[in-house]
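Hi team,

Filling in the usual template for the complex we talked about on Friday. All components are listed, including any nucleic acid strands or ligand strings, so the model treats them as one assembly.

SUBMITTER: L.P.
PURPOSE: interface mapping
COMPONENTS: two
RESIDUES: 1006
SEQUENCES:
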Amino acid sequence: MYTIKLPQKARIPSEGVVAEWLISKGQAVQKGQILVQIEVFGQVISLESPLTADVLEILVGAGIPFSAQQPLMILGRKGEDVSAVLEKLAPKKAPAKADMDSTSVISTVKQFQPETAVEAEKEVKMESKAPAGKVVPVLMPQAGQTMEEGTVLSWKVKEGGMITAGQVIMEIETDKAAMEVEAIHSGRLARIVVREGQSVPVKTPVAYLAESDADVDAYIGSQGGVGAEPSQKPVGPRASSATQAPVVGKRPAVVGDTGRVKASPAARRVAEEKGVDLAAISSGCGPGGRILSTDVLIAGTGDAAATVPDGAVRHPLNKMRKAIAQNLAYSKQHIPHFYIKLTVNAQALFDLYKQVKQQFQCSVNDFVVAACAKAIRQYPAFRSQYATNEIVENPSVNIGVAVGTDNGLTVPVLLNVNRMDLKQLSQRTRQMAENARNGKVDGVGQGVFTITSLGMFGVEEFSAIINPPESAILAVGAIREDIKVENGIVSPTRLMTLCLSVDHRVIDGVMAAQFMKTLKELLEKPEQLVE
Amino acid sequence: MTEHYQIAIVGAGPGGYVAALKAAQMGAKTAVVEKHYLGGTCLNYGCIPSKALLASAELLHKIRRADSLGVKVQGQIGFDWAAIQQRKDKVLAKLRGGVKSLFAARKVTLYAGQAAFAGAGKIQITAADGPKSLITADKIIIATGSVPSRIPGWPTDANLVCTSDEALHWKELPKKLLIVGGGVIGCEFACMMYEYGVDVTVIEMMDSLLPEMERQLGAALAEVFTKRGIKIFTGVKVEELQTIDNGLKATLSGGKTIEVDKVLVATGRRPATQDLGLDSIGLQTDCGFIRVNDRMQTAVKNVYCIGDANGRCLLAHAASAHGMAAVEDALSHGKDFDLPIPGAVYTFPEIGSVGLTTKQAAEKGIPIKVGQFPIGYLGKAMAVGEEEGFVKVIRHRQDETLLGVHIFGHNATEIIESATAMLGLKASAKDLAEMVFAHPTIGEAVKEAAEDSFNQALHLPPSAMVRLAAQAEEI
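RESULT (copied from the run log):
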């Protein structure tokens, strides 16, 4: 086996950065074949292999700096064991030094985070073990200044297993790269709360170390509660106080008292180029909410058409169109949407609708609204909205019903739907739709949830965009004739597909699924809606 | 009658006095307790006296090279050590007076004496001549700083084995000096003492000078020092130190011995947190440091710790910044302190550094691109005869974020400020590369280095494409 290095020569600087590997681990290489490109001061060096062999290990990754005598890779014969060599070459981690304030891009989690203690007698120790009774949260690390959230790719340890500090416990992915995360503390990994495939903001707990599971429950319980005060006692590294996703990175952009929006020079230039109004960007990732160029690129709603084809007709945006564009663009970019689809057996609903229609004017959609009202009453999360550091729950069940008009989409709001019976609901809805077509929108800004339907056009299923500042929207498809399979027997029936779009900052998958399940139960036994 | 304050600060160094002025500015009734001179280590035993001595040394250095700029100096080039010390003392006295009058102007109450906690919110002050007084405060900031480390087991005669505390106020210069520790303080002393005619040897345990900083900086400084005639040994310790007639004999790792008049220990500083009565409030220390979070809060409610005593960053401007953060948190709304803190070394040529080093990038697996520009290529550098040094800019390889800037060269400590500002604003290296820098200046090298990190520096020839065979080593 051989380690491969930059040759020691007079005109070769003593340090460099690996630009690009042109071969990969496991590959066979020939003598003279270029292995890697290296950047040093004044030169780009293509390094040739000095021998014909197999690539056993790459020691310095692309973009990583190294110093002259550092080995870059190991060549040898396939199958040779490199573990002993890797042990020997493993860089000695620098001891936790006093200069914790030199800009470390990854907040070295060895920083001490004492409890915000209440009594003077409280003492706090540097934890390296999770002692009995104590719960230590394992946090999603911030691996990079701009990293705001990470996705857990895989857990390398099972729930309940023991881990030691330094051990790789999970693999995460950020928008930049996948990486392994080492444990800082030793202890028993009592609970994993962020599963593989799930994303959370940086510095939120992904798991907890504790001797007993009961301690973990108690700890999570004490951390929870909407609008918890930051002075709530965290144990060990400071954990976020909100139960749901805490605010990460974005703060509202600051407008100085001269009216000038705080934005970086690069942001201003990009905004000008792209015709984006800086004042319309609600928050930036820079210090104090300063708008950075990356914020502008995200907010930019697209360039003016670079080349206008012959015969094209230009329609200036009317106020409604502009509002829709702004609101929904904001929604799509700033609200982390996920979607749940559920198909309801609508035979009973269809039959009941036919019956009720003979007594008073109504539509199938009215039944859906009524069902939603009951479900929303039951699930506070669906009448809540996300705000900085807290989730604001609305006691009223105000449901917006999307209405298409000649000018565009508008969403008048039914107030306190849970207090209406089906007849009132139906009447009010028709009235609102009429008003909307005449330019008057009822209940603007008071909605907590929106229902939109394209069933009248035969659309089976679609997903809608959440109407900010709400946390969810239900898209309703047409009732269609279809088949059901029950106990292996195929029979005709009527189905209706519902698709729920949800703000993951406020509502998790399980909660959304339970909501949909409740909706399904209500719609499949619709007599509950007419009582 | 026990006087009560909204905020009391223990220590009037760069952390404490800045915090006190800030608190008073915010309208709080403020007290400061200081047992020694106002201005702390920075003013009296650190930053200021060392820069005053370095200024005289640098002038000597320049005059000795006057010929290279066509200037003729007649007679012997010499210096008056007593006059140099006197001038330095005048500067110190003026600054101490300055802090005192700022306190008076803002109505900060100054207590002279040693402070000790006497229970929650209570501080007992013992004056030098005995009398005690007691004050209470809603919030207390500990800013007691640090003292130079000494090496246990070594001769304790401060005339023979001393630290920077003594060295800055030497009445007489040694003839042969051994400096133990090649960090910032060791290097600054080596640089100045050499100009004052002292035979200087520097011993550093790690494998380069300035081991905490970007490696290239220490290597470049070592090269310059060695060329001048300062002896440097890295990767070596003093295994034994004995007193001999008229001095000391040091035995280094590997057996080599050196005989000197004095040894200057510059191996680091330790926190000054003893005798503060911390037990009375249940505050524990960690190796003497009082650990804090990003708002400078300790584990005890309403008690903060800033500066060297908390161990986060042993620099005067860090202490001041901590002080501001602590006062904001104590008196209004705090926020986590996360600004970049530059480092400055006042050797000649100077060093200025902020942000990530290449070693830290490698350890964290951050993909980077490095731009570099030799100061000698600049018009200003050639025109003024200060061609030594380089600027190195480190940026994130993919998203172009500026990560670190390291400067070795004339006025580096002033030039680093623009880089720190850009880093603090989370600018991209591209922003830095596109800024307009005045010409002709040394600072332009920062722009060029930033451009080089995109392979776009115009004042550098394009990178040569070279093909080489790698070196293989059997294992």
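MY TAKE: Chain A has ten helices and 28 strands. The CA atoms of residues 22 and 35 of chain A lie 5 Å apart.

Thanks, L.
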